[in-house]
Amino acid sequence: MLNIKYDIVGSFLRPQEIKKARAQYQKNEIDLKQLRKVEDQEITKLVEKEVAHGLKYVTDGEFRRRWWHLDWLKEFDGFTTKHLDKERNGVVNHIELGLIEGKISYDKNKSHPEIEAWNFLYNLAQKYPGIEAKKCISGPNMILVDHFLQLGIKDTPYYGNDIDAIIDDIATAYQDAILDLYDHGCRYLQIDDTSWTYLIDDDFLAKVDKLGYQKNEILQWFKKVSTKALENKPQDMVIASHFCKGNFKGYPLFKGFYDSVAPIICQIPYDGFLVEYDDERSGSFDPWAQLKGTNTTFVAGLISTKNPVLESHDEIKTRYLEAKSIIGDNIALSPQCGFASVEEGNCIDEDTQWKKIDLLVSCQDFL
Q: How far apart are CA 73 and CA 309, in angstroms?
C-alpha cells in the first residue's frame, strides 16, 4: 500500500545547462566527470525546487538519462541496444531499441551508473526532514517488448526461443537489482512499464498477430515476469508501477482502453498503480473497480504533462471524486506521466511544468 495522497511520475524537463553539457560530451568537448558535475549541480537545484513546491517524494528528474527505459535496462548483462531512424509525426527521430544478446543477469559487484545516481539523490533527500527519495526504473516487460515485438526478433543468441528461460532470468535479474537498490537505502521504487498499453492498441496488435503471437500469450509473459520480479521484495520496501499510453516528446504512442489488461495487471502484487487518465482516451475508471477494498493504491494520473493547457482545480476534483466513487478510498493523485520521457522533453515549458506541480499540491484540500 502506498501511504501517499499525491505524487509525481518522475521525469522533469531538462534545463539548458544539462542539454548544453550533454551536447558537449557527445562532441568530446568535455569528459564524463565534467558532465556529471553539471548534472549534480542541476539535480541539486531540482530537488530544492521540488521541496519548495510542496512535493514529499522527490526524484532526480531523470536528468542523467537519455531515455526513460533504456538507460536503466543497460544495467543488465546480456542486454544491448540497436540504433534506428524512425519517422513519427512527420519527423525522423533517431531512436534506440533493446535486444537480448546473451544471458540476462544483474551483477551487484559491478559499478552501476543508476546506483550511483540513486546514491546522489538519496543523500540529497536526507537534507530535508520529512522528504523521501523515489527511484524510478523501467520494467522487465520492456525487454520482451523491444526484442520480440518492436524489433520482431524470434530468437536470441543464448536462449534460442526458450521464452520461459528468458523470463526466469529477467525476473531473477530484477530481484537482484531491487535488492541492490534496497541495500543502498531505497524504500520507494517505481517500476515504469508501458508494455501493457502496447496491447490495447489495435494497430500494434495487428503487428503482434503478423509476428505469430496472440495477445493473451504476451499478457501471460508480462504477468509471469512482473510477478516473479517481485518475489523477494523486502517487506518494508514499497514498489509501485506506472504505465501510460506512451509519451514521446509529448505525443502519445498508443490508443485504446484498459479494460482488457486491467484484470491481469491487478493480479501482480504491486503496492500501487500510477495510471494515465488525463483525457477521454483513457475511458472510464471501471476496469480498476476490482481494487476497491484492497491494499493496492490507485494513483489517478489526471494532470497532463504533455498538454500545456493548465487544468482547473475544480476539473481535477470532479474527476478525482469520480474515480474514488468507483475504486474506493485507497486512491491518490498524480500527473499522467513524466515531463520528459526522453531528454528533449514534452511540448511544454518549465513555467507551465511548475504550475502543474503547484496545481497537484493545491489539490490536498479534497484528497
A: 33
Question: Residue 169's closest CA among 187, 153, 156?
Answer: 156
Q: What is the number of H-type helices and E-type strands within the chain?
A: 12, 10
- Cβ within 8 Å of residue 287, ≥6 positions away: 257, 258, 259, 262, 263
Burial class (CB in 10 A: 0-12, 13-18, 19+), 245: buried
Task: Indicate the length of the chain as a whole number.
Answer: 367
Contacts by residues 211-214 (CB-CB < 8 Å, ≥ 24 positions apart): 211/148, 211/149, 211/152, 211/154, 213/148, 213/149
Q: Which residue reads 511548475 in cell numbers?
A: 354
From first to last of the 367 residues of the chain, give the pLDDT tens digit: 788 999 999 999 999 999 999 999 999 999 999 999 999 999 999 999 999 999 999 999 999 998 888 899 999 999 999 877 665 556 656 778 899 999 999 999 999 999 999 999 999 999 999 999 999 999 999 999 999 999 999 999 999 999 999 999 999 999 999 999 999 999 999 999 989 999 999 999 999 999 999 999 999 999 999 999 999 999 999 999 998 886 665 566 678 899 999 999 999 999 999 999 988 778 899 999 999 999 999 999 999 998 999 999 999 999 999 999 999 999 999 999 999 888 887 889 999 999 999 999 999 999 9
User: Which three cell numbers mark 195?
Assistant: 508494455
Cross-strand bridge partners of residue 160: 156
